[in-house]
Structure formats: structure tokens, C-alpha cells
């Protein structure tokens, strides 16, 4: 009976000690969890286009897995999300097309927002043709259709190649999307160059319809000419040539847009409180830099493989490890690489 009581007491002591250990371990784990939960949730703005969403997903993956912050995305129009950035409802903008916001420089100077880096500045827009129109494509049995086509003004000599099916007396040049400012600009440019005498300016109706017209012509090896821009999946997937124009000058631009579009600096910008809220993330974003080509290639991957931007971001991080590991400290890079496996 005495031995039984001793054994019982020993078991109770053992159970008590195990309980203390478990509580201690849980408390330790709880402190770690609290450290992560104590970090502010970071809100990224998204104005709705593919490249913006793609860069958000790269940043989110690194911020969440490398730095331990929770993230969220607020989607809306450019004016709405930009107002949110200035007010502090949004913390991060990964793709700020600076020339599209009249108060951008003023907001930087006032300190409402902080410009951290140039994401890319090699974007372009203007009048494109499939490259095979100029150079042909021997592998597809396509002969050059306009071997001397180099500039927008040269189109006048080649209007018959781009014949408008609905009006065979003129060529068809695809315009920009109705409602976009560039639609007015391009229409005016066509008249400035007097291309309206040989071309009909055709409205595609939507960006999806414009992309579809390029894809349809390209797959058939047919001629196509019209407005497009980069970075986009279309430029990443198809070999397109931007026709040359007069070098940009303010004087020519104000005289009927008689020159090329100036490249737009696309920056990474944060709300003024980010230096206090997440200084480590600010340090990372200061190093964030890609290019129009890298972005177009990723968007083409997303389109071709029918994957979400989050999957395209993981593909990008695996494909371009040498690039993004320069943006972060070694220990952060290791955490991100481990999360990619």
C-alpha cells in the first residue's frame, strides 16, 4: 500500500513537471507569435492592371516570408488607391506611373508619400507592327511585307498592306482604348502626320479586344498595325516592333503630338509612416528594381500557362534569384528561398 502511494505520488510529480514544461514551451512559442503579430499589417494598393498585381505579389511573398509581416491588398481605381496611399489607408504602391498623377511631385515635396526606387523606366507605347511584317519569318514561311518600314510616317507608303476589310480604299490602324487619354493623343498624331488620308483610325473598344486583334493576326501571320504599350503579356509573348518616331521634345509634343511618347518613370512609393511602421521593408523596397522586359516576360508566362499573378511571382523569384537576392539581406533571402520550395 505504501509503495503504491509512493508510485502514485511520483506519477503526479512527473505529470506536474511535464505540465510546467509544456506551459513553458507554449509561452516561448507565444512570445514568438506575439512578436510577429505585433508587426503592423501592411496594405498594398492595386489599381487593377496585370503588371501592378504581379509586382504586388512579388513584394508580398518577400515581405510575408522574409520579414514576417501580414499583408493585404486594397483594389480600386488609380485616383481612389492613390488617395488611400496619401491618407495612410494604403502603405505601399509597387507601380506608380508618375506622369499619370498631376500632384505626384507636389506630394513628394510635401512629405505625404516617399519615393523609394525606380521599379522600371524603360516602358514604351506607340505604334507597333509584328516584326515579321518588316523582317519576315523564315520558320513560318512569311516573307517581309514592308522591309523598309521604320517610322510611323513611313506607314503612308504601305497602307495597302494593312487594308481595312470594311473600307478597302484605306488601311486600318488600330487605335487606343476609348476613354484613355492616349486615344485622343494618337488620333491627333495620325492627323498631324496626315495618315488619315490613307488610314482609317479604328477603335478596338477595349484592351481585351485590342490584344485579341494582335493575337489573331499574329497566329495567322497577317499584317497588323496599331497602338500598344509595354510591359504587357502581348509584348512578352509576341515579337513586336515599335515604329520609330521623332525624338521626344516638349515643343513637338505640344504641336500635335508630332514625336514619340516619353518613357514614364514607374516608381515604388510608400506612405510617410512606413519608415516607422516597417523600416526593414522600406530598406528592401529601396533596392527593388526590375525592367519592362522582365515584367512583360512574366505576364506572358502568366498568360501562356493560365496561372494567377501569385504563381507568376513564385516563378519569377525562382527564375531570377540572382536579381532579387540583391534586394534583401542574406538571412531574409534564405527564408524566402525556403518558402519557395
Could you give a short description of this structure?
This protein has 341 residues and is of the alpha+beta class. The protein has helices spanning 2-37, 50-67, 78-87, 104-110, 131-135, 181-192, 207-220, 233-237, 250-253, 274-277, 279-286, 292-305, 309-319, 321-324, 330-340; strands at residues 42-46, 71-75, 92-97, 113-120, 124-130, 163-164, 167-174, 199-202, 226-230, 240-242, 266-271. It contains 15 helices and 11 strands.
Descriptive account of the structure:
The structure is a single chain. The protein is an alpha+beta fold and 341 residues long. The protein folds into two domains: 42-123 and 264-340, Periplasmic binding protein-like II (D-Maltodextrin-Binding Protein, domain 2), CATH 3.40.190.10; 124-253, D-Maltodextrin-Binding Protein, domain 2 (3-Layer(aba) Sandwich). 48% of the residues lie in helices and 17% in strands. The chain has 15 helices and eleven strands. It has helices at residues 2-37, 50-67, 78-87, 104-110, 131-135, 181-192, 207-220, 233-237, 250-253, 274-277, 279-286, 292-305, 309-319, 321-324, 330-340, and strands at residues 42-46, 71-75, 92-97, 113-120, 124-130, 163-164, 167-174, 199-202, 226-230, 240-242, 266-271. The strands form four sheets. A three-stranded antiparallel sheet has the order 3-11-4, sandwiched between helices. A three-stranded antiparallel sheet has the order 9-5-10. A three-stranded mixed sheet has the order 6-7-8, with no helix packed on it. α2 (50-67) packs across α12 and α2 packs across α13.
Amino acid at each position: 500500500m505504501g509503495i503504491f502511494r509512493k508510485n502514485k505520488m511520483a506519477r503526479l510529480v512527473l505529470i506536474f513537471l511535464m505540465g510546467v514544461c509544456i506551459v513553458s514551451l507554449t509561452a516561448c512559442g507565444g512570445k514568438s507569435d506575439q512578436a510577429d503579430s505585433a508587426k503592423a499589417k501592411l496594405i498594398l494598393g492595386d489599381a487593377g492592371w496585370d503588371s501592378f498585381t504581379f509586382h504586388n505579389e512579388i513584394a508580398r511573398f518577400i515581405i510575408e516570408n522574409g520579414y514576417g509581416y501580414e499583408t493585404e491588398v486594397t483594389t480600386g481605381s488609380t485616383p481612389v488607391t492613390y488617395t488611400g496611399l496619401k491618407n495612410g489607408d494604403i502603405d505601399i504602391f509597387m507601380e506608380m506611373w508618375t506622369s499619370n498623377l498631376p500632384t505626384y511631385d507636389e506630394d513628394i515635396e510635401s512629405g505625404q508619400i516617399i519615393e523609394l526606387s525606380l521599379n522600371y523606366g524603360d516602358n514604351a507605347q506607340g505604334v507597333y507592327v509584328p516584326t515579321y511584317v518588316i523582317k519576315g519569318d523564315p520558320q513560318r514561311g512569311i516573307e517581309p511585307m514592308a522591309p523598309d518600314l521604320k517610322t510611323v510616317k513611313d506607314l503612308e507608303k504601305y497602307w495597302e498592306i494593312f487594308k481595312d476589310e470594311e473600307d478597302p480604299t484605306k488601311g486600318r490602324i488600330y487605335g487606343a482604348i476609348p476613354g484613355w487619354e492616349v486615344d485622343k493623343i494618337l488620333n491627333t498624331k495620325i492627323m498631324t502626320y496626315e495618315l488619315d488620308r490613307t488610314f482609317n483610325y479604328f477603335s478596338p473598344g477595349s484592351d481585351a479586344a485590342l490584344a485579341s486583334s494582335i493575337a489573331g493576326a499574329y497566329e495567322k501571320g497577317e499584317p497588323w498595325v496599331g497602338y500598344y504599350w509595354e510591359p504587357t503579356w502581348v509584348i512578352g509573348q509576341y515579337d513586336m516592333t515599335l515604329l520609330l518616331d521623332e525624338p521626344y521634345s516638349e515643343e513637338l509634343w505640344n504641336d500635335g503630338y508630332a514625336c514619340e511618347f516619353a518613357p514614364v518613370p514607374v516608381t515604388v512609393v510608400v506612405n510617410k509612416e512606413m519608415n516607422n511602421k516597417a523600416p526593414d521593408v522600406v530598406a528592401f523596397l529601396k533596392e527593388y528594381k526590375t525592367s519592362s522586359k522582365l515584367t512583360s516576360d512574366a505576364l506572358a508566362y502568366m498568360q501562356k500557362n493560365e496561372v494567377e499573378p501569385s504563381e507568376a511571382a513564385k516563378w519569377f523569384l525562382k527564375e531570377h534569384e540572382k536579381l532579387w537576392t540583391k534586394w534583401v539581406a542574406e538571412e531574409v533571402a534564405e527564408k524566402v528561398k525556403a518558402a519557395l520550395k
